[in-house]
Amino acid sequence: MDKDTIAAIATSLGKGGIGVIRVAGPKSIDVCKKITGIVPSDHKATLLKFKTSTNEILDEGITIFFKGPHSFTGDDVVEFQCHGGPVIMDMLLKEILQITDVRQAGPGEFTQRAFLNGKIDLTQAEAIIDLINASSEKAALSASRSLQGVFSQKINTVNDKLIKLRTYVEATIDFPDESIDFINDGQVESEIENIIQEMNSLLNEAKQGVILQEGIKIVIAGRPNAGKSSLLNALCGKDLAIVTNIEGTTRDAIHENIDIDGLPLHIVDTAGLRTHTSDIVEQIGINRAWNEIEAADRILFVYDVSRTDDYEQVKLFTDIQERIGNNVDFSIICNKIDLTDNYSLPDEMNTYPQIPFCSKNLKGMEELRKHLKECAGYTNSTEGLFSARRRHLESLEKALSHLQKGQELINCMSAFELCAEELRNAQNNLNDILGRFTADDLLGKIFSTFCVGK
Ligand SMILES: Nc1nc2c(ncn2[C@@H]2O[C@H](COP(=O)(O)OP(=O)(O)OP(=O)(O)O)[C@@H](O)[C@H]2O)c(=O)[nH]1
Ligand SMILES: [Mg+2]
């Protein structure tokens, strides 16, 4: 357990009915005594006065003491619930930090301690932050599931199967004279295939978890007056951006977060792009628009179908393509279809998905929402959903690739030793996800689970 005692305000900054100061570490009992005069019973809420070192009463509130290891971090923890004013909380925290060997906690340090003390694994630690940052109900629900251990449990299930398989494969290497015909009994092939399938579905579920947590960044781009701000307002369902028939109305980038059936979208409306402008403010807006375009996951290119004779629209589109290469996806929003239904897209745009749209009567809105969900690979189902991160996807993909290599080595060459190495690597990747740093207990497993009859 950690020697330091750490303290911090646990509730968010600002005014509130109650504010919580959390203390964790071996000095927690001392802190409790110094601030309240007593040590409350373990896991019981007690109403006490909070005093300074000169015996002045700062506040009165609930104190709860959690004796380690039955606490969030695993060490002794005390929580003071005082009135939620920033000044009074600061005063109480200062008082606590004056006590010898107590220091201000760093960011995430309580959770880090919980992980280091084995109270939670790494995915659960990450889920706490994801739960706090969740931008939709579905994202919160999925983070909560990860925190309850749903994701870890799934990893553990695959991991257990992998250990069993490794045990079997290692046995073929270590005990070549045994009577079982390892090579011809087909068990390794079928089990490796099972694990690959399980890993594939876990990867797909984890991808949904990542989308839910991170969302996608959508940038609306196009020429002035194409209807970009009207599209932003329509998607957000409110009058966020100014809309006029004057070209160059939008100057600065306008950001808004929305969610479509739980899928978080960060939407950015940008200044209309044009190649030449003498207006210095508009030029700054255009530069900002380019910066947003370069950081997008998907660009909604607003094409004004009432101006198909305007070559500038096509030129702009190819300029964006050239500037960002193949890194970003496009969707063409064919806007103002109320003005004409007789239009065709220029060849340059024809290979991209296109949504006929009208910002005035919202025709095309349902198709656009559906399209954005499809682009993100998002499904509406909440069943079994858990939060995940890109780092988890990377590890799962690496593990899968090692398994596939292992499968090839067995199927094509019956190369058990090389396969064993691939399985070991796959297991290390799974352990990375949970934050277990390669404790290789395989040997013990071999002798305890595989009876060789001698
Ligand atoms: N008829 C029709 N007019 C539209 C539609 N969408 C936008 N407009 C009009 O087109 C004009 C320009 O709309 P904006 O949304 O301000 O266009 P913008 O692309 O944001 O323009 P800038 O900010 O100047 O780059 C306004 O007069 C809108 O009312 C549409 O679907 N149909
Ligand atoms: Mg605008």
Automatic annotation (TrEMBL):
It is an enzyme of class 3 (hydrolase). One of its GO terms (cellular component) is cytosol. It holds the Pfam family MMR_HSR1. GO terms for molecular function: GTP binding; GTPase activity; metal ion binding. Homodimer. Heterotetramer of two MnmE and two MnmG subunits. Exhibits a very high intrinsic GTPase hydrolysis rate. Involved in the addition of a carboxymethylaminomethyl (cmnm) group at the wobble position (U34) of certain tRNAs, forming tRNA-cmnm(5)s(2)U34. This is tRNA modification GTPase MnmE. It comes from Ruminobacter amylophilus. The gene is mnmE.
